[in-house]
From TrEMBL:
Gene3D superfamilies per UniProt: Dsl1p vesicle tethering complex, Tip20p subunit, domain B
Domain of life: Eukaryota
Transmembrane feature ranges: none
Protein's GO biological process: endoplasmic reticulum to Golgi vesicle-mediated transport; regulation of ER to Golgi vesicle-mediated transport; retrograde vesicle-mediated transport, Golgi to endoplasmic reticulum
InterPro entries listed in its UniProt record: RINT1_Tip20 (IPR007528), Tip20p_domB (IPR042042)
Listed name of the protein: Uncharacterized protein
GO cellular component entries: Dsl1/NZR complex
Amino acid sequence: MGALPEGYQVIKKEGDRRVVELSVDLRRFGEEKLRCALEKIGWPEPLSTQQELVDKETELRDVAAAFAYLLTLQLSQQQSQVNAGTMDLWAIDCVLEPLLLRFRYHFERLESATNRLAKPEWYLTYVQEQISQHTRFLATALTSELHRRREEVHCWDAQILLLRGLVKAVCHKLEQDLPTLLANPLLLCHTLDEILLFEQTIDDDVGYGSWASTDRCVYPRCVDVFTSNNEVLFAWTSTDVEYAHRVLTSSIDIKSAGNNEFDLGVFRSKQESIWQLEKRSYGQPEGSGQDLVPQAALQFIALLDFLSQRFTLMETDEHRYLYVMQVHLPLLRRFGQLCDARGRQLLNSLTKKNNEMQILGTWRELFVVTNALQHVAHTLATWEQSSFFLELSKKVARSETTRAQVLRMHVAYSRQVLSRAAKAASTAVLTSEEAAAVRHALAGPGAMIGPTAAFSAAYSVGSKTMKSLFRRAEIEGNDVDAQAVEPHDEGQSTQDAPVDSAAPVVFTTKHNKTTLVNDRGEGKDDGEDDPETLLFSHTIFERQITELRSLTTTLLEKAKDTLVRAAERDVDAYRSR
């Protein structure tokens, strides 16, 4: 078929132009008609009672008709468009206009008294109130019209569509406030708490979560603002890490007893009593295992559970997996250190000369510490079998794209840790008295002491971080050197071991079998997978469970050895009489 003559082309273009203008005029007419109908019912004032709906039945019928006209007009014009089903509806936008106008007036103007960074709950409460107050009106006048065209729209629930528009407004405000929030960790933490609570509320009350899980692009969440880029995501995880370690330290950490005699019968502080059972637990018959778990373990599990609830709403599996690596794993490592410190403290007290009641009390508390370790390990094993953690592990393990994204984000996080470590090390060295003396004595070479120390510290942290990422064992020398293991100094206490949030684990075990990996990532066993596969093929808490159980066994073995030595000492003393 030949091309149209030039004259017909001009006529066609003119016809297209007039159709577009007519479409614009029809849309403007439909929107004005709907606005007038809404004004007659006093929108956005709520119609909260059934009697109010009855009194304005005629006006509501006009609103429904105007809404249906504008909806039909849009759908008829956009039938040929590929993404027509997910486009914003003009009719819903008209309904949203006065609500968004109030939102911007109260919460986005700089001079507004209600626009306060410290009060994110104010605008979140506004959104919740609008949704709850207009439920009857939306169901009566709008949802019925959407339901008639349910095959052509992505959602026929007017309440969900209205909430979607308000959530977008909240996201826009959060994006504006984000630079200030990142500079103020306390404000960031409070805002995150309120946002997560808001997300949970709209999921429970309205069911927004089911729509968001279906298509996150069409139904966004406010929490997506905090996972929009690595800088914001790392600020979130860093805030949660600091909070978690602060809670753990304040509630469980044990202060050194110094050279004073260890007296179990007196609770010297809250940290002492946290390792005690309730008095009613002693003397309980068998089968009351829950009563044998100390408050230290129960509080720690509650903390872990709280943190687990915070990352479930993240958009991608990469974000959720990275959160566990950066928050949960270092926290579990620190809990093991505290339990180890408490166990060593108790074992040390057994070597001193105490009366019978003190010795019995020490043994009793030592078993309580091992109960705490076993309880946490058992809880983690149960969590691993839950659908959420099983799905997360499998999705990350099976997707090369997801694994690559996790690795990239973790490397970026490592760089951030390196930067902070270098700055901290440089500051520490440059402010020390020795460095000051060297700087005064050596005008030239002394200036390199600070940067050199900073680089060394940063390299050390980075090495630990990357080893924890790939779960590799550092190997130096030949195979003989690799098999040579220095004995552990039992007298060294891990009580004051520093918390390394950047290096949660060094993981090379699989099914209790250690696999050595060289610098090129080649395993000694040709049948084993490469380190990246090993990283993502393990269940999330497998190594932490193994470490906690191993620590339990170690404490019990040392306790047994202490008991045997004490018995041998008593026998020798008896024979020497």
